[in-house]
Amino acid sequence: MIKTIAIFLASASTLQAACDNLCSGHGTCLADDVCSCYDNWGVGLSMESGDCSDRICPFDIAWVDTPNAIGEFHKYAECSGRGICDRSSGLCECFDGYEGKACQRTTCPNDCSGHGTCEYIEDIPFGVVWNQYMNGYDFRSYPKQLNYYEWDKTKTRGCVCDAQYADVDCSKRMCPHGNDVLDLKDNNLLGSDNHQIQRLIFMEDEDLNEAVSSRRLQGQPGTNRDSQTFALTFKTRINETFTTYPIRFDVANGNAANLVDLRDDIHLALLSLPNQVIDACVVTVEYDWPQTTVDITFTGDAVQGRQNLLMVEDFECSDGCTPKITGLVLETTAAESLQSRVYEFQESHLNSYECGRRGKCDYSTGLCQCFEGYTGENCNEQTTLV
Fold it and tell me: What residue segments make up the domains of the chain, in order of their start?
């Protein structure tokens, strides 16, 4: 009898010491009968150990939360506070407008309507072209991205629309821009300086020209850039990007015939861009070693008003890219005033409005519906006197 009682008491003691539900197989039972759960296991909203029967979902920086005692916001929260945790699977069920394993990032409106890319806030660039940020300096041909360190980095996203599309969800087709023919406020009636002039400065790298300088002192022509090629990229007001075919850069120490050839080559390359996006322009070239100055005046109806600054493709492109160019050796380390650059030399006195401000844009087609008395692709031609 005594032996039987001893066995019963031992069994009772063992049951008393066991953790709840044996920690559901997802933890270790400690000496104080409390489960030490494996990672991502616990119980309920409190996420205490309990019997380790529930999954814990991923955490990320909370979109909105209550502050702590010292006023800190945006602490880490399960599903970022923008989803409900499925305790059986450990997966967040995100609310509309949020996605990611912890609901940590926004979706983009209407998935950018299939006409753009969904980008994080820190990856969205400033301006259409690099030179809008650089105030005309440097020949880099990509938009500028700015450093961003706020709490919603890698969380909030927006649409970067494809060419010809706009609005927050890239759902609308863009219409042509042109001058308002009745707006005389900014127009010079004499018509002598109504057009934008962009100036391109090609500054030779003097450090790489010692051998050339020696040849020049001996009366021998040629620079390290002669016979090399470059290209020009033009981005329209509706964000279409076009790049010219290779242009040969041969100034031959200011030889007049070579400068004329370079002028004509640049002019023809710009006019040869598709869809007549530049329908008329005037090009001049001047040389004063080590600087070559190219002025481009936009005179056509398709390029009225202020245009995006041209981008000079001066890097070598010899394999797997287009157009195939040798590139140019240009000054990049000197003071800004001595660097190769492009800037607006003369502001246009014409303006550039959607549909010339004399029509409404049909955003489903990208065509202007001109008001009565006006016609043309951008409604900048009068058919009747007002």
Answer: 60-99, 108-173, 197-346
